[in-house]
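Entry 14. Structure prediction run on the chain below.
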Amino acid sequence: MKVKNPERRPSVIDRSCFPVDFAKMSGAGNDFVVIDNRDKIVLPADQREFCRRLCRRMFSVGADGVIFIEKSDAADFGWNFYNGDGSVAEMCGNGARCAARFAHSHKIAGPCMKLETLAGIIAAEVLASGDGVRLEMVPPSDFRQGLTLTLDGVEYEAASVNTGVPHAVIFVDREDVPVKKWGRSVRYHQLFRPDGTNVNFARVLEDGRLQVRTYERGVEAETMACGTGAVAAALYAAVAKAMASPVEVLTSGGEMLTVFFDLSDGPVARNVFLQGPARHIYDGQLTVEALL
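Output returned:
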């Protein structure tokens, strides 16, 4: 039987843009490729497929997502953000912190800046420590409590909230939950149609911190951290577990994120900030072979 060779061409992507300078960055284990695209090096029509191919681990650079730094008339800069499967995300907390550090180190913005996202304009501050970034989140919305989800025959109470992107939060009593299996089930659950949701499994540790494991839509797997998910879990922990701001969130990768907020009846959350590391791992140049 004749086997067809896999696609070996970079599709319709404009080859003239290569080589492309990039930075690899990590926000608490959530890793990204960051490209200064203010001069339209990668055309908007090419970006989705460009990202999908670039994010393949072992075959290309590999990442949870790609950030294109763009010009903005409303803020210091804007971005186009794509998940690893090429889908667009309105917001990403860890990605935004990485974008902020990149912008500061490339003199696109000062240590205090504003970033235009599809979820709105957000403020960020690169801390004096160098790799730490404090991010002001968009106001959370669409908080729903008292949801019930059945996972492997057991009913769990859950909540959902949009912290820039939609998140479901489920409290569990053990760490070794099957995140990919349960996450995929909840991600496509009828409660969250038509767009689906990110899914967070949270538990309160003995030392008072909140441990969170996240299944991210668009990556379709567990990621080592999720900023918007950490915020969603911290807010639900404040409502359901009486946790007070700031909430320290231990991510799957072992890094710590800190969530600050003011919470009032409703619940309504204001002055929501996400703080944590945004590390510059390396710089490089992409060749056209990165997309083969």
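The chain has a mean pLDDT of 94.
Filed with the rest of this week's runs.
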